[in-house]
Amino acid sequence: MTTEVSSETEVKEKAEESAAQLDQPEKATEETQEEVITEGEEKEKEEKEKEKEEKEKEGKEGKGISKFLPTWLKKPKSQAQEAPPSEEAISAGQQEGEGPVPEVNGHTEEVEEKETVKSEQVKETEAESHSNASADTEPAKEESAEKSPERSQETKEEQVEEKEGKEGGLRGGGGGVEGQTSIFQSPLRLVRKAKMKLVVCQVALLDGTDFTCEVEKRAKGQYLFFKVCEHLNLLEKDYFGLTYKDNHEQKCWLDPMKEIKRQIRSNNWQFSFNVKFYPPDPSLLSEDITRYLLCLQLREDVATGRLPCSFVTHALLGSYTLQAEFGDYDPDQPRPLDYINQLNIAPSQNREMEEKIFELHKSHRGMTPAQADTQFLENAKKLSMYGVDLHPAKDSEGVDLMLGVCANGLLVYKDRLRINRFAWPKILKISYKRNNFYIKIRPGETEQFESTVGFKLQNHRSAKKLWKVCVENHSFYRLNAPEPPTKARFLTLGSKFRYSGRTQAQTRLASSLIDRPSPTFERTSSKRISRSVDGAPMISITDVERDTAENGREHRLDLHSDSKSFGASEVAPPQDHDKTQDEVLKHQASVSQLKRSFMEAPPASPPQSNQWEKRLTSSPATAVRFQQQQVINAPSAEAAAADCTSSDTKEPTKTADVEIEETIVVQEVSKATQPALVTVAVDSPAIPPAKQETREQEVKVQEEAVVPKEAATAKQESVSSESESEDEAEYHPNVSASTHMPEVKEEEEEEDKVEEDKMADENMSAPVVASLPVEITKAAEDVCKKEEESKREEGQGGVKRNAEKEMEVGRESEESTEEPMMTPEEVPNGVALAEDAVIGLVGHAEKQEPKMNGETLLVEPRPQVICCSEPPVVKTEMVTISDTFAAQKTEIATKEVPIVHTETKTITYEAAQLDGNGDGEPGVLMTAQTITSESLCTTTTTHITKTLKGGLSETRIEKRIVITGDCDIDHDQALAQAIKEAKEQHPDMSVTRVVVHKETELAEEED
Amino acid sequence: MASRIADFGRYTHAIVRGIPASLAKEALRSCPSEVDVVQARREHEKYQEILRTTFGLEVVELPADESLPDCVFVEDAAVVCGDTALITRPGAESRRGETKAMKEALEALNMNVVEMTDENATLDGGDVLFTGQEFFVGLSKRTNQRGAEILADVFKDYAVSTVPVQQGLHLKSFCSMGGPGLILVGSSEPAQKALKIMQQMSDHRYDKLVVPDDLAANCIYVNLPDKGHMLLHSTAEMFPESLKVLEQLKDYTLIAASNKEKTKVDGALTCCSVLINKKANISRFITPCTMWTR
Questions:
Q1: What is the ipTM of this complex?
Q2: pTM for this entry
Q3: CATH of B2-293, one of 3.75.10.10, 3.40.50.970, 1.20.120.450, 3.40.50.2300
Q4: Is A412 on the interface with B (CB under 8 A)?
């Protein structure tokens, strides 16, 4: 850390200098830009030769930007700015050398900078570095103090964000993303517009208190949300969200990815903090504080009647509440009914119930508050309406219904009766149009056609709201472990409304890695009861701490020391560390641990985590990146698997942003879906540790290469967004999602504008930020090459098959025209396929060789494969296994003989892409996850592609699973397992193709 | 769910009722038949004996009422779950009087008794299948939507789903619970359809055991702490093929009860008793405190 800090300071100074120079012009002229560049170059010169070279390269690029410009930047002004900022950032990063952190900042800034003036950029950089420093060390505040108030504000925010980011980062991609955005944008904006106003937000917390904080007027929802979570000391925040009331007094979820101001549409900055996704099994939550908050929500739900329960259950839940809040039943305690009344346990609370509550309370003697909470939740979760979000609707005949959205699907109630239920796997598509809400149902075993069920909502707004809730719930609960992140993002991008957070699976994984002493927290009782209760020890939780809430989080933090531990249940003894430092460090540690777990698996590259980590990390890697550009070809080939390797980095945030962009791209590019193919590719190369480094480099290279592509995508995106506006949206739950989108009529226009702005911003940033996504994409692409090819094939083949398909193809081509993106430029980058490539380090030369090299066997040639416009080698490699075949998988695996050439595939892929712009959807890598076990490393990369063609939608999920081990691996078993898991994760899909590559390292590297 | 499942099939009390002589002629039936009241009473005796001795339940026997020919089928008069009892409003007008005695008996047992007073509502207990985790209510000739709604309102903790009953008198005329998470169901098409619907409507997963004869799917499952799974089923004489299927159940003690006469008036095994778990009243939800206090 120390080193980092110092380096940061340096950076700052430099930045300041540059800032001073550049500050004046509002818009950066080219000249100024050049200056900047030169500076950067000079600095670079100081650096090692390699770096020089690289920088020069960069510089060239920058100067030569003109060629890129059109692609990169949609908006002219941003173009000019673009090149310089990136260079600056780069140079700064290089200068620092080991201090990757600054780089990271630089990157982020760059992105945002595009919009802003150079000078501003510089400032920002400064600010960012400050923020970093501050996050790590307290002194940062001083610095901020020196600077203008705005700046200090920034820094503070940044700090917060950073913390958040770290915390979130640990958990997973989603959090990271959020963190990113908030970090970058809000601060940047502040800088930009000094006049930016701060707004006071009031957030009603679950314990009945209000949390007040200031937020920049243009802040996004997540910024506020993170602030609240920080105030609550909540790590498992993915289950929660903020709500606001719209103009019609309807409660709406605040979209974390959008500006608050755009959402609330009134000047009423009041929110409440609520549970958004009720965990089906609260016992799986990691922390007591999370359970406590869930309890508070449920108490409210029960008391308001939103969660109906019987008399007995009311009483039982109430008794647990008493136990949690007041400890053991104390017969001597005066006026017990007083506090029971305060607890507001049931909508109709009467004497009889109170008696019952006390009776039950007595039986809980000895339970700690945490245990009582657990019991409360164990009972509450069984209630049939637990976690069901009801929306009034009518059926086609005008009969009043309630539609309930929950973890398992969509429930239809008539009065209290459940009259129908559509489990998520049964739902092919969710859409709304005006005030109609539709779900398309998968045909049953005996049915031939899918059916669509329509409901009428009160108005267009409520239809949209319901749709959103469905999208989010599906994403959160259904998208499973390895894939969820991807899908989630995917969804998010598609329409304006997509779930942007982590899925439950991710969140669980993340929380399993939470590594902090369970935080002490005060319970509501302390707030409510002012009189001291001497009797019960539990009660010792006093009001004293009440005040804290008002004071703000810091208070909270202090509380640690003061507050008592409630019971045995609170396992970890409360430690009083100042949150500021120790906690942050711990968080970081835990985060890094998390990352490690993700990354450790050597072979596979979970695109997201790896990439961002690398970027973010303050490891030497950054420098490497640049260098790599030159090298591109060689490393790229190897790069594929590498992604996972890097592990230390702490800033997930950036990644997140990147992802978002990706998503957008995906959406636009890909549309509908139909049958889903799950391709399971199992590679089992033994990857030597040595390779890891290479991989990183490779990865980076890929990133850069990608950039142009992204920019292009961004363009597309923006375009698409414009066209989007309609009153309808679709969501294909099973796949990931394709969407068309737009939403509310009136609002739409505004939203669109906003979105465009955003897009513009994003585009601007795209070159830098985008690179990350690109990487991901590429990795995915690698994986997907086959997919795409197959798609193409399908497309072509499809034509023959049926008219519909033809239609699709036609559409695709049309679309393709719209999407200039997929250009040759990409190709080179794309070449580096990850995992396979890794194996095949040897083979650049072979790239062009036909795929025949692959060892894969064609087990069952699929009909799809039959017609290929492009003969891409890939086919040969594929082993196709039909569903039924699964049983035999083992045998298949056995047949294969380990062969080294993976590279071939890569090549193929690229070719496919180039040609296939029209047909093939660009692969998007949604999720990558690496799980490492002792002797065996498995990396799963999931690629989801949705294509909408002429009304037919097709969703493919391609999973690449790389199993690496230094010891012998039971390949058959691994393959069987992989297929099994794939099936489990997508019960609604069928495994259509399995490609197996076995690669055994040549003796050289191994052993 | 675990606690609920663990308690599934645990009972302490049973309410039964005598067979009036009027059963022979006046009891409702779906197809004409001659009932031997004496034989029916003998069967009923045997049935009660099993509840009492084999299952160890405290049996409350209500006296037969000649004016209520169907009164032996007490199940239709009340739905009991936990400590709450819903006094139904039977779909057949001639049976509405049956609820009075039932209500008194349940109140005497200190149950939390709720009456269905809505005149638009009808509900026969035979249409109510409680799985331990949720209710399915058959919409039949005897039970309507409103009746189901009221049931849902009374048992708020549970999901209540409706299932159209296309054939047979009641939902439980072709199905019943054969254990925690196990649905016994007849093989007829309507029965299978109903099962499909139930499966679709449920968030929970159930195993199914299909028996060839619909009526044979109506069994009484009891879980005794000392004896484990017990299943009271119709005799082999009545449904030999179905018994063979039931015999596949592992670790089950199968107990046969002749129900021949009562089936002539559409009476199945479950129809003749209301089973109650007094101990479960609240403890259903409570995990033993001992686990915390140690």
A1: 0.89
A2: 0.54
A3: 3.75.10.10
A4: no
